[in-house]
Write a structure and sequence with these properties.
Layout: E1 2-6, H1 13-24, E2 27-30, H2 31-40, H3 44-54, H4 61-71, E3 81-84, H5 90-102, E4 109-114, H6 117-133, H7 144-158, H8 160-167, E5 171-175, H9 180-195, H10 218-231, H11 238-247, H12 253-265, H13 271-282
Parallel strand pairs: 1-3, 1-4, 2-3, 4-5
This protein binds adenosine monophosphate (AMP).
Length: 283
């Protein structure tokens, strides 16, 4: 399983990543953590990154891309990884696509944790207080001034990734304002759907160059098949039907259309679940 967690500082990416690590036996690759380690060890990369990080700016793309390129090849990443804090810019996302292609790896999902900016300062202040209470050193960039800059970087340079991955039919958005447990549950639902072929890769649309008005997109066909699979088991029992409906909840447009088609095909047996699948998928 290979995932990207997207969200502003304080959105809970780190917390959710740790839970996913335990649940799925994959590694969390946080470029922020790696850079902080490099700063502490005073490596050449650390020396380069130190002031930029302290000021709340972004370390150059080639530096972080280089770090990730090495890291995803390590043996502990063989089962999969969660990218936390990477990519942060469109060029980083493009470089990641290239990298994964070269290594014949694929991404399963990009999960955005959406939060109100208003609560972030509060959350980061709480994180700093908790760290202090544990007797650990507080991050230099967890101050209100630097956080404001980090949020501006997020808005200007990272938010465009939401469109990037949404265009690639990879994005699922989770309400990061919910309690931690609920966010985890929602992420699990999305991942279960990915595993069953309900979202992301199933609905990944082709690059604009490949898309043509004539030829129906291959991926749309795949999406139809996979979404149908997600809905088909619903024939068996009412309970399963509900689950299937949930599994297409976050499916992007093409998958949702496909789900609707599939639902029609099995209409008589589980009208209700088909309706709710369609309704959720439209959201
Ligand atoms: P984080 O722990 O993810 O909040 O990252 C802390 C700091 O490390 C950021 O404010 C940036 O200065 C730097 N950083 C982490 N990841 C990246 C990245 N992908 N691209 C550029 N800078 C990064």
């Amino acid at each position: 399983m290979r995932l990207i967690l997207l969200g502003p500082p304080g959105s809970g990416k780190g917390t959710q990543a740790q839970r996913l690590v335990q649940q799925h036996g994959i590694v969390q690759l946080s470029t922020g953590d790696m850079l902080r380690a490099a700063v502490a060890a005073q490596t050449p990369i650390g020396l380069k990154a130190k002031d930029i990080m302290a000021a709340g700016g972004l370390v150059p793309d080639e530096v972080v891309v280089g770090i990730i390129a090495d890291r995803i090849e390590q043996p502990d990443a063989v089962n999969g990884f969660i990218l936390d804090g990477f990519p942060r810019t469109v060029p980083q996302a493009e470089a990641l696509d290239e990298l994964l292609k070269k290594k014949r790896m694929t991404l399963d999902a990009v999960i955005e944790l959406r939060v109100n900016e208003g609560v972030l300062l509060e959350r980061v202040e709480r994180r700093a207080a908790e760290t202090r209470a544990r007797g650990e050193a507080v991050r230099q960039d967890d101050t209100p001034e630097v956080l404001t800059k980090r949020l501006a970087s997020y808005r200007d340079q990272t938010e465009p990734l939401i469109h990037y991955y949404s265009d690639h039919r990879m994005l699922a958005t989770v309400d990061g304002m919910m309690p931690i447990e609920q966010v985890t549950a929602e992420i699990s639902r999305i991942l279960a759907a990915v595993g069953k072929g309900g979202t992301s890769r199933a609905a990944k649309k082709p690059s604009p160059a490949k898309r043509s008005a004539k030829a129906p997109a291959k991926s749309a066909k795949k999406a139809t098949k996979k979404a149908a699979k997600a809905v088909a088991p619903a024939k068996k029992a009412g309970k399963t039907a509900k689950k299937a409906a949930k599994s297409v909840k976050k499916a992007p447009k093409k998958a949702s259309k496909a789900a609707a088609k599939a639902s029609k095909a099995t209409k008589g047996t589980r009208k209700t679940s088909a309706k709710s699948a369609k309704k959720h998928a439209k959201r």
